[in-house]
Structure formats: structure tokens, C-alpha cells
Fold this sequence. Notes:
Chain A is an all-alpha fold. Chain A has helices spanning 3-16, 19-41, 61-70, 74-83, 88-93, 95-100, 106-140, 155-187, 190-209, 239-265; strands at 145-146, 152-153. Chain A has a two-stranded antiparallel sheet with strand order 1-2. In chain A, strand 1 (145-146) and strand 2 (152-153) form a beta hairpin. In chain A, helix 2 (19-41) runs parallel beside helix 7, helix 4 (74-83) packs across helix 8 (155-187) and helix 4 (74-83) packs antiparallel against helix 9. The two termini of chain A are 33 Å apart. Chain B is α/β, with parallel strands linked by helices. In chain B, a hairpin with a 2-residue loop joins strand 11 and strand 12 (258-262). In chain B, helix 4 crosses helix 5. Chain B is elongated and about 75 Å long. The two termini of chain B are 43 Å apart. The chains are: A mainly alpha, B alpha/beta. The A-B interface holds A 6-7, 9-10, 13-14, 17-18, 93-95, 97-106, 265, 267-270 and B 46-47, 50, 53-57, 74-75, 78-79, 81-94, 98, 102-103, 105-108, 147, 151.
Amino acid sequence: MSAIAKVYKWELLKLTAQKRTYLGVGAAILVPIAFVVALSLQKGGPNDIPLGRNIRDTGLATPFVVLFFMSFWAFPLITALVAGDIVASESHNGTLKTILTRSRERGQVFAGKALAVVTYTAVVVFAMGTVGLVAASIKWGIKPLTSLSGTKIAPGHGVGLLVASLAVYVLPLVGIASVGLLLSTVTRNSAASVVGTLMFALLMQLLGALPGTEPIRPYLLSTQFSAWHGFLRTPADWTPVIRAIWLSFLYIAAPLLGAYLVFLRRDVAGE
Amino acid sequence: MSDAIPVSARGLVKRYGEIVAVDHVDLTVGAGDVFGYLGPNGAGKTTSLRMLLGLIRPTAGSVQLFGRDPLVEGAKALEGVAGFVEGPRFYPYLSARRNLRLLADYDDRDARSRIDQQLELVDLHTRANDRVGGYSHGMRQRLGIAASLLRAPRLLLLDEPTTGLDPAGMRDMRALVKRLAEEGITVLLSSHLLSEVEELCNRVAIIRSGRIVYAGELSELMATASDGFRLSCTDLERGRAVSLAQSGIRDLRVENGALCFSADASDVAELTIALGEAQVGITALVPEKATLEELFLGLTEGDTPPATESALAEAAA
């Protein structure tokens, strides 16, 4: 096992031993369940959002609708909980100096942490999707899904589109996680990093909502949370998906590079 | 590489804005030394150690551990080096064993095979599966030693290893350090417990306000203290007169009904004979050598710390 793989393994093990990880994963799982329960108890529904009208037609629709709702602050917060903490808490607890005086290079330690954050981010999104699909399918069954173009999508194909949508959705969320990692490395303060990351995500949404920002709107990170809509059109619209891929890469790379450089050179002193 | 000097620091400086935490520190720790790094709180001991381990970047100067610079060679420069700064820190939500497994995976392949042996050495094998969050301070200190020894080090840097330990814990820790030194491990021990340093170390450096005020053999430092004696006798006045007439008796004075003076041992022997011949009975003759504490306080206390002198000189220039 390579040095980075060993660090990565231990970063994951550390995450599985911490309450905040379960808080994040738990929230990601509970939201779709709560959504299904709430819709079961009332007649109305989220008619004005994509797939909202068809939510009771098939269990396949629920994960997509929850994706939409959770992109505002829930997923950014769940992501920030871990990304904003992963370096800052080690600085605060003094364990960073413990691991940096062993035989692993700083770059390897950072890489392990970054990979763990990406893994956590993917896990919470796919956990939400899986639980949402299962919970809604129990309630409403798995039937053909009505696409955003009005055509019917077979359940098997619908599940494939859900997986692809979740994968594309993870990309901008990793962009937010990357900002969290940067703040965690620079501020060395877990709470400030979590709040700062959430503020960044909300600021992106605010920018997108302001009048006159139409020209930059397609390039905002928050806009990329809707890229999966392209999969649910007939024929599939790849433009938002491709844009989400390269744009998210930029949003991921810039803060990640900054965090990496700071991590390599920073003084590890008593916090 | 094994013949290289374990620690060689030259001109180390660390500034935080206007504050000079470490001011042109030179340190040399030779193979087999148990080197005491002394200084009052805030003198710059821990900052120096952090620079030695590559945890913080010096503003100026360089560090070499067995000939390798941690800032240039990164973790490779820490090969054969272990220890802790400001107390050992562990993941409180993991057990001691898992903490050590983690650290072993951050080290070489053989480190894992040494875990049980080290846990037993520090007497934590029965609590190895308990979370470190529930450990006492002393247990964490011992776990810190175990974590250090996992690396099979040739150089051990220990920052205040007995701080916060009860007397039995301090005794055990000192015995362990002594044993490790006897096994050939070079030890750099930062401490402000002078009795500890006196018991364990052969060489010392004393830092004050960021600057080294003494570096060398502990025995040489102790030898710089004047050889004083305190003499009680049956007739103080006659005794004083005899002492005054005796050659080699210096700084004679009367303190609390006794004669206090400085002299070489041979001159003191002559004095005892002279007193006997003068019918003056000696009731007590006690050598009064300055303790390390007195020497330390003499070097580290005063009106103008060296760093301030330097700053004044720089300002004047």
C-alpha cells in the first residue's frame, strides 16, 4: 500500500470514529426519509420544481427532488462539517504535529485528507440518493419516470440516470468541500471554517439570484447543482453536464492548490 | 549517515513580528549525549524544538539532524528521530493501540510489530484498547514515549516529559529515559526541572529570552561555582583569627554563628590542622557548593536579558 493510500485509509478510519461524520451522513439519510413521510401525510407537493409534479408517480422522482432542495444549504453544510474540520481540528488538538513528525511527507498527509473529504462528500450524496430511492419506492413503487421533456423513462434507465445525476452533483459539492479544506488549513479554526464554507455556498446562490448577474450565472458553482437536469431531457442535454465538469474542476483545483501550498509551508505550533 | 552529529543547529532565529522568540541559537548534541535544554517558561525552548523537528520554519539559521535538514529533506530528515513537543497528542476517540497502529502506518513496515512491546514497556498493555480520551495525563505521557519508541529512534527529543506526573510517574519516566540513554539513544531533554536535568544529563544548554547563555558539559558548569565551606567551631573569634592567618582562605565572613569562606580542599585540610593546634574544636565543616538551581537562576535572572541587550545594540546601530 502506498504512503498516500495508508494516510487515506487512516483518514477514513478517523472519520468513522467521529460523531460529526455520523451527523452529516445521518442528515443526508434523514432528509429524504422525512421528505417521503411528509408527502405521505399531506396532499400537496412541490409542483413548481423539476419532477415535483410527478413525485407521487414513482419512487424514482424523490431523490431528484431532494437533490434540488438540499443544494441550497443542507449539502453545503453537511460537506462543510467535515471539510472545514479535517485540518483545523488536528491543529487545535495538536495531533497534526504528532503525524507530521513521523515518516510521511506533508504532501502525502494532505493528499490523504483531501481524498477522504472527497470520499465523504460522495458518500453523503449517494447515501441520500439510495435511501431516497428505497424509501420513496417503498411508498410509491418503482414505475416509469416522466422526464423533464415529458417522455417516459423506464425504471432501469431511470436508476442509471439517478446514478449519473448523483455523480455530476458530487462535483460542485467537492468544489465547496475544497473551499472548506482551504479555510480549515488557513484559519486552523473548525467553527470558522464550517461557517465560512457555508457562507461561500450561500454567497454563490445570492450572486445567482441578484438581478443583472445573468451573464455570470452559468459559471457560478451553485448553478452546477442543476447540471443533472441535462440527463433528464430527451434527448439528453450534455451542455450543462460538460460545463459542470470543467467548471467544478476549476472550483476544486484553485482552493485545493491554495490549501496544499499553505499546508506544505505552514508553521505547526501550539494553537 | 550514522556518524553524523544527531543535532546541529546554527544561528536559529524565529521572529513573530517584533518578538524574537529564538535569537541566533546554536545547539550541538553529540551521539550518546543526554542533553538538557534548560530555560524559564517562554525562553524559547519549545520553539527551538519545533524548529528542530521541522514543524516551524526558522526566520534564519539551519538545522541538521544526523546531517539532514528537515526543511530541505522533509520527513526523510526525521529518520531515526522521535519525540514530542509540548506533550504528546493523540486522537482521543481512538484507543491507544489504534493510535499506535496509525502512527506505525505513518512509519516503516516494522513499526507495527513493535506496538505490543512498547505498550508493555510503558505499562499500558492492560489499557491498550481503551480510548485515549479517558487517559490520565501520566498515561498520555507514557503513551507518548511508546509512540516515540515505535520508530526505533537514535535520537529522542522530549519536551518536559515529566510535567504533570506524580512523583512515582516522574521517577519511572526518569528511569526510562536513563535506560534508553544507556541503550545508546541520544536524548535531547527540554525541562525546567533542574533536579531532573542534574540526574539525567551530561551536557546542557541554558536559554534565556531566546538566546543561549550557556552550552557545554554539566560538570563544567557546576565547576564554575565557587567552592564554599561553612564551619562551626567552639570559639568563633579564635577560629576567625586562625582562618584569617591561614593562606588560601578567601571571602571569610561570619554568617549565623558560623564561618563561611571559599577555599581549595587542600587549604581547608590545612585549616583544620591549624584550628586543632589552636585548641579550637570543629563542630561542623560543610562544603557549600552552588546547586544547579543557583547557577541556573544566576544565568537566567537579571535586569537586562541578553536579547534585550542585543535589541538595544541593534537600535543604537
